[in-house]
Amino acid sequence: MRALPIIFASVVICCAIISAGPGVCAERFEVASWVDHFDFAGVKGEDGYLFDSETVEGCSKILDHVQEVGTTTALWRNCGGATMRYQSAVESHHQENVPDKRKVLDSRLPWGWVRYGAAEPDLMRSALDLAIEKGMKPGVHWPFEETHWAIWTIGGWNLDHPQYWGRSIDGTPWWGRSSIAYEEVVEHKLQLIDELIDRGIQSLFIDTYRSGGWGPGYEYVPPVVEAYKEKYGVDPPENPKDPQWCNHVAGYV
pTM, whole model, 2 decimals? Predict the structure, then answer.
């Protein structure tokens, strides 16, 4: 089941005003907060770190803090790049400490120690349940990037499927993004959404502004190139900022 209201936006969430009659006391705005619990892992107080973001108790404290600004919808971040921050069955996990020469670990402390995929119980399910308990709508903030400007954020699915990697005009592959021109990539994305629906989200905010370095210059993949040739009768332009090429790529993205 994938019947879910999905919000597409780039920088801000536009919230509708709820009209109320004279004398009626009602909330006029939805206050939707992006909650990046990984950032909370490094917040220090006088007596040490304030939030243990790998525990249910720590996630509860984070949501209490978020609620101080009047949050009505908590959009919990599900990933860092393409690595998931919960016990995903279809993608690799945040900071998996597996020897792999194709990746490196985050050496920053304390962030390099965080292992959300190994946390018990499942942190995503716990955070969404906590949001409901605290009177907020449970949702997810999903940055649509697949690498967050760092090699340790590359997902295992991408590394195992180089045939779908983005490509530049000269055919150079880039593991930072798998092109959604391929049906298999779309299906993988939908499987990730299924995992979130199973955990109880009521709202999904897809953050298309975060690109992780991606741009139309990495969409010179065979299906996109062949479709361009068929449509315009010529090879794609070498300039990835060419308006016609960008408009063509937008049909996929």
Answer: 0.83
